[in-house]
Amino acid sequence: VNIEKIAQRITQLGTQIHQLNKTSQDELGLSFFQYHLLNTLRKKPGQSLQKLAQNCAIHPSTLTQSLKPLLKRKLVGINIHPSDSRSKILFLTKTGNDSLVYFSEKFAILNPLLTEIKLD
Amino acid sequence: MKSILASDGKKLIRSIAYTRTLFAFDFDGTLAPIVSVPEKAKMNASTLGLIKKLADKKEVAIISGRSLHDLKERVGFKPDYLVGNHGLEGIPHASFDLKLARKSCLSWLKALKNHDWMIEDKTYSLSLHYRHCKNKKQVRAEMLKVIESLQPAPRVILGKSVINLIPKEAPHKGFALQALMKDGGYEYALFIGDDDTDEDVFTLKDESILSIRVGKKMRSSAPYYIQTQREIMTLLKLILENKT
To answer: Is the ipTM of this complex over 0.90?
Structure first.
């Protein structure tokens, strides 16, 4: 095992992914993580914070932080849980859905960066 | 339990326009008002017009306790899916042996033949109606006592002035809805029903299903409700307002 090579490749990947996410956010309005979050919510509207975190495979506290800008931009809406007034449920708004559609339509502009990363 | 027609509920209904949703409805007490004689049940012209409009745009299923034959003649339009007998009929690729269900029903009919009750034979399940009886409570108690001795023991689902007898291993409405979702590749479903048989859907607690009950009932597992059957028209209008 060549640890030096692995470390170099992982560092390089980190930089490339950071660049990809930055371009994606600047050009398409969403990072890949935000896209994943919104798309998971699109498929199942009305998920609780815990369920959404579980479905996105992230920690609930990470989700709370990640949701803040999306709520501020009104891409995601929030309601009180119908059966438990202490918890909340989330849903995609029209603006949120428009963002997902725009992301999908313009996705091709990220192809050069994606080719560089060699996802496969 | 919250009203789906309140501000929060409306927002949620709007958001389901962005996902591939199957719109599933119970028939009696949901799309059609409850009537004293089950044969007279039908949708009013306005509800029929609205659901036809919805079926033109989206995929619609009707999941009822009625027999499939009866349901086909009664609905007045062609939905994408029609499921009868509480989930026993109309599920694509279903594996339940209907002959067994019929055999059970014939045994029950034989055991019940000496009672002067209104028994609806739906081929694969039975419904014992007591809406027309003067002393409903007493008749219901008598029915339940006799049902206890039936062989094979049926699954008993109490409804609005009706007792449904269903073969124990038979698929129920919840199973039926999930099977339809799988069959059509739906990401999400909206289901609305009014009766105890619909609790088979409500109790699923499936995050891919938005469950709504006709009539607020604290013991129900449905998270949302509409106040009366007539509000189905308001709900259908709200769904139709959604634009993707």
So the answer is: no
**B243: confidence class by pLDDT, cuts 50, 70, 90:** low
Let me know: does B240 contact B219? Beta carbons within 8 Å: no
Which chain A residues have a beta carbon less than 8 Å from that of B188? 43-45
The answer to whether residue B13 scores a pLDDT higher than 60 is yes
Question: What three-state secondary structure class fits B113?
Answer: coil
Q: List the B162-166 sheet strands across, edge first.
A: B118-121, B126-129, B162-166, B155-159
Name the A residues in 13-72 with CB < 8 Å from any B CB: 42-47, 51
User: Which pLDDT band holds residue B115 (cuts at 50, 70, 90)?
Assistant: confident
A27 min Cα distance to partner chain B (Å):
23
> B14, A94: Cβ pair inside 8 Å?
yes
Please answer yes or no on whether B210 and A45 come within 8 Å at the CB atom: yes
3-class SS letters over A31-54 = CHHHHHHHHHHHHCCCEEHHHHHH
Q: SS3 breakdown of chain B: % helix, strand, coil, rounded to 5?
A: 40, 20, 40
Is the pTM for the entire model greater than 0.80? yes
**From CA B196, how far away is CA A8, in angstroms rounded?**
62
